[in-house]
Amino acid sequence: MGDRTLVCLGGGPAGLFLARLLRRADQSWHVTVYERNICDATFGFGIGLADRLLDELAERDPDTHRRVLAAGVVGHGMSLRHRGTDLRWGPRGGLAVSRAELLRILREQALEAGVTLKYGTPADVRSVDATVIVGADGANSATRATLGEELGVTESLGRAKYIWLGAEIDLAGMTFSLVADEHGAWASHAYPYAPGLATFLVETDEDTWRRAGLDQADPPLNDEGSDLLSIRHLERVFRDDLGGRPLLGNRSRWANFRNVRCDRWSARNVVLVGDAAHTAHFSIGSGTTMAMEDSLSLVRHLITAADPPEAFARYEAERRPPVEHLQSRAAASQTWWETFGERMDGDPHQVAFQYLTRTGALSYDRLRGADPRLAREVAGWFAGSAAARSGADPLCAPITIAGTRLATRVVVTRPP
């Protein structure tokens, strides 16, 4: 490619990983990563990495794979707590690891490969000069905003409110808890990422959030900048799940999930990776995995293509299909979680089955193969339900939705 300089805007997992991979593949590249936050000023708790990423990481960068694996917690089972019942299934697979620890590992690995890291140094596409500029600056990407028209950006905000927290609790695996109080319905997504530590994400609908008085424009904050009023309220809501332990904040504030899609992932000499290019709802746990997979793909094509435009085109052609597939599944999952309050009166077995099949990736037949015990429990619940007593096949059994009774569970829609 001739001149070989690359600037990465953003020192998250995607940016640091890409920088190391490129330097390891070809040391004629001069690679610099700019991160506006100071070193170690990371946010968040644990993040998940899928088995498919870990497999490719083992092949492409065995040393980093070894270090990440040693730092994380291998996925175990999953469970749903609802109406006094704790349903379990699994195993889940994958790995959960502290975001701060993952960034420390990737930072050290990048430095070992000869990458220049500039922390506490804001930079943007207008202030840097390089053969290739990579926008790895996350869901709120300034790079994407600057090139919005050229990239064909579409953004929207989800309906639910969510907040990332942590807790000093021991969990056997991913745990979902649905809780109702006088204000409405609350859900937690919790999973272990280190001994005695768990991510504890909470979401709710906006009406419940407002009724609980958590919609203050300027809430009281604790020393590290988290919404103290919300933390104290959620400690009461989830006291049984927490065993009386406090919730931990890390600049934790309520937000609405940002859905991001781009018609094009590159413009001129700038290319986007990870959440800067595309987001997928956190409930499918693929954000960091997709970002690091983007880095693997982009580096492969930067090394083999004749020039940056060809590399960008190959990268997007390779990555867009799996990303859009995951985005489609994530959209279905997001809708399910944004409406979970409508299921609070449901039997725990019914709610668990609805959760597992929410994206269309898992059917009842596949569940029977993956987890026969849970499938038997679900079948047992249905056998005792009013619908089963009608004697009809489950698909043809009557159902009542929002006060409307349908003769079967098959609905045919016709265009107007």
Automatic annotation (TrEMBL):
Any one GO MF annotation of this record: oxidoreductase activity
Keyword Iron: no
Keywords: NAD, Oxidoreductase
FAD-binding domain segment(s): 127-327
Keyword Cell cycle recorded: no
Protein name, UniProt field: Oxidoreductase
Protein species of origin: Spongiactinospora gelatinilytica
